Automatic annotation (TrEMBL), chains A, B:
<dbReference type="InterPro" id="IPR050101">
    <property type="entry name" value="CinA"/>
</dbReference>
<dbReference type="InterPro" id="IPR036425">
    <property type="entry name" value="MoaB/Mog-like_dom_sf"/>
</dbReference>
<feature type="domain" description="MoaB/Mog">
    <location>
        <begin position="4"/>
        <end position="179"/>
    </location>
</feature>
<dbReference type="Pfam" id="PF00994">
    <property type="entry name" value="MoCF_biosynth"/>
</dbReference>
<dbReference type="InterPro" id="IPR001453">
    <property type="entry name" value="MoaB/Mog_dom"/>
</dbReference>
<protein>
    <submittedName>
        <fullName>Damage-inducible protein CinA</fullName>
    </submittedName>
</protein>
Amino acid sequence: MLAEVMTVGDELLTGNTVDSNSAFIAKKLTERGYWVRRITTVGDDVEEIKKAINEVLGRRPEVLVISGGLGPTHDDVTMLAVAEALGRRLVLCNECLEKIKAFYERLYREGYIDDPALNEGRRKMAYLPEGAKPLENSEGAAPGAYIEHNGVKIFVLPGMPREMKAMLEREVLPRLGERKFVQLKFLAEITDESKLAPILKEALEHFNVRIHSSPKGFGKYIGVIIFAESEEGAEKAARFLEERGISLERWKL
Amino acid sequence: MLAEVMTVGDELLTGNTVDSNSAFIAKKLTERGYWVRRITTVGDDVEEIKKAINEVLGRRPEVLVISGGLGPTHDDVTMLAVAEALGRRLVLCNECLEKIKAFYERLYREGYIDDPALNEGRRKMAYLPEGAKPLENSEGAAPGAYIEHNGVKIFVLPGMPREMKAMLEREVLPRLGERKFVQLKFLAEITDESKLAPILKEALEHFNVRIHSSPKGFGKYIGVIIFAESEEGAEKAARFLEERGISLERWKL
């Protein structure tokens, strides 16, 4: 169950914004049992986004989640790039246009904007790749899109974290099945790191888990994260590690 | 002056760690006048890292900065992957080995570790791709590497932020020339976003600057960042925007 994440935005490439979206998306996908193989960040550039999407599709993941570049400004070009990458036209989603209209009318009534009219930029957000299902944006104007293309489930989400998170929870995760993974985190005290690898390998052969390890401090502690379909499953693997001589304590981040 | 950034680590792909390293590196490269075109994040997997490096090299940037996966544990495989991607052998850097030895002896004297001996994992860090210049790690054990390969400057840095930042400042940036870019940030109050694009385009034709814009709030404010070689150059472009009717105020992040 391979997945990939793509974030779009010049502000990420200039380092003006730390990309916390990709970590959020990756965490949720991991909890659902997906293995996120790669995260790609590109700018607000149609050709770059297209190239990156085609490269992802060539790696044939089950799921691709894209975030960013759906807004009303001239540099929000992600939907166009997705459509072109998939060889589809952009078509007007009437239902989306109605919702966008209602959204700006509400902002106008509430005094946030001076003009509720659907100018070019606002209308643009109602165009989705042909065949896409619109994803409802409960927190903002731009709808997302869900497209199945050559066996890859593609989700296109806004970049504003509040909008992205709500859409991911409500519109994306329910389409990815019921399976859930839990993560148990431990600190292992260990004086020789080279002892850990064969024991982890043995645990992976015995249990239906994934295990990540990473050094903390100067080689005395190793962070160990066990992913399993249940807390009991993860705990069984943890007890196995302890039986093999690795002293674990629960690690609260 | 195109650049790319690559970060390596399973903890980034599971969402357990937010990748702030790539933003830091991208910001520093942008300040030096580089255009970061893409950020790629891969796991601690030799084949994946190799594939991603070869893809970057195919895009022929001037600079590639890689961060993460240089430590002593079994899943720190970045140097091996870099060497294999470039068709080079890993060779022992004697000078590095001496520094690693001294580093662990100091940790031992200061009571951080129980054993200062150079076991397999610690020795591994002294191996660099053939032809690489070692980069000094003032904050930790693992040296970085600087490799010129087919016209691409490749820098390989540790993933621990404190180590990465120090190495970037002291060992990488001095090798990237003296040119510096400043960024001035503004908030533009604007009621119709579609008016902004042609004015920005005009400014780009008149001045030696880069301009990024991104919506803040619901389309009433646009964040505008002007990159130029001097503060005066950026201010000239800002005054030009104001003359064209865009009301700007300085924006402190």
